[in-house]
Amino acid sequence: xxxxxxxxYDFTQASHSGEAGFDPYQSEKNEQFYFLFNDKQGKVFLxxxxxxxxxxxxxxxxxxxxxxxxxxxxGLRKDEDGFxxxxxxxxxxxxxxxxxxxxxxxxxxSLNYFRIEAPSYIEKFSPxxxxxASNDYDFGQESRSQEKGFELFRSEKxxxxxxxxxxxxxxxxxxxxxxxxxxxRRNGIRSVIKNGSNPENYRFENETNRYxxxxxxxxxxxxxxxxxxxxxxxxxxxxxxxxxxxxxFEEQFEVDDSTKSLNTSLTMNEHPINNPSNSGAEDEYDLxxxxxxxxxxxxxxxxxxxxxxxxxxxxxxxxxxxxSEGYKSDKSRDNGIRSVIKNSIxxxxxxxxxxxxxxxxxxRAGNYQEIGRSKYFESEEEMSxxxxxxxxxxxxxxxEFKVELEVPKELLxxxxxxxxxxxxxxxxxxxxxxxxxxxxxxxxxxxxxxHGQHYFHFNGADGQPL
Length: 466
Known about the structure:
Number of strands: 22
Oligomer: single chain
Shape: globular
Structural class: alpha+beta
Number of helices: 9
Strand content: 25-35%
Strand order of the largest sheet: 1-2-3-6-5-4
Helix content: 10-25%
Distance between the termini: 65 Å
């Protein structure tokens, strides 16, 4: 039987605190949040799966403490590495896994130690009353559409993407956390639709005699939270409304049986803004980041928001036109630029897209991995002409980034070349001794001090005028 959970753990981690009990930390490898449980000597023997934020990690600790109260939630296992145990929640989702032990006695002793000691930490990791409504939510944001169902918006305060699900009167009933892109928000909505019709995925909470409920995905991650209610009965009625209404949005947000069966690891990767990438580049863009240089062409920079490496390709005015995802290192970011240059000349690698913000296009590599996206456009005509400009411009940076490629003739601005040849037949003068102003491949325009005229060259791959 396949072990679908083992790969989610990082068994290479040693204790961070060197003290007994729960030991929370953030991984330097992927920036996700984990916790360990250490024995009385401060040595780790129990490992958690990753969480996208501190709040979610602490919630995982509390859930582990609650579930440790039942024998049926523990599993006694053995594999090629030795004897170990697991802890699952009441729905059967694995939460924790121990290190391998040499024999059953060591394993059982550690399990009992965890069961006895874990409850003593519940106060340490209990949410403060002011934190019950997580900082990831903006409960002060009222409905904008005043219409029943999902509404999507972007916050003016922090530029994050949110959604509500409004009740029959158009008032916000269910709140999302903040997402760093419209795509991530759309995945959040799809997760709500996939999980929101199942009453078992909801949990009621009581904060100082005010009630609210949370919605969780199959991997036990919280994905949305309700407004406050004055009574449990009021909350029950709102929940019944949600469960009845949410399935009606499956078609609009393209949720079907295949997406409903997505595994837990995918659901975790769809989580909001704190979610790091498992590869070199995050599947997130920061469209709020303005051009750093104000110069046409590629620019590279390190984001102060998340310490990741990005690049833009700027338009003729030096405004950010094409955006990269975030990279963990400058080397992988530069490889991303080379990939954009290589694939920019391949028309089949572009996709025209539309979301609630507008029209844009994306570019993919040969392995179908998306490697960048454009800014938004107001019309299909603007997007088409801008994409054509991009295809005819980006490859001119090939020499700068040491990329070898054969540019199709149709991307070498053939009409301008024909105009150049026609003017020669009319007897116009050429200055074949005139050097250009750049050694880059492509067009090079300049003003000659010798003749007081405006000229242009077309340089070959070696940067020499052709």
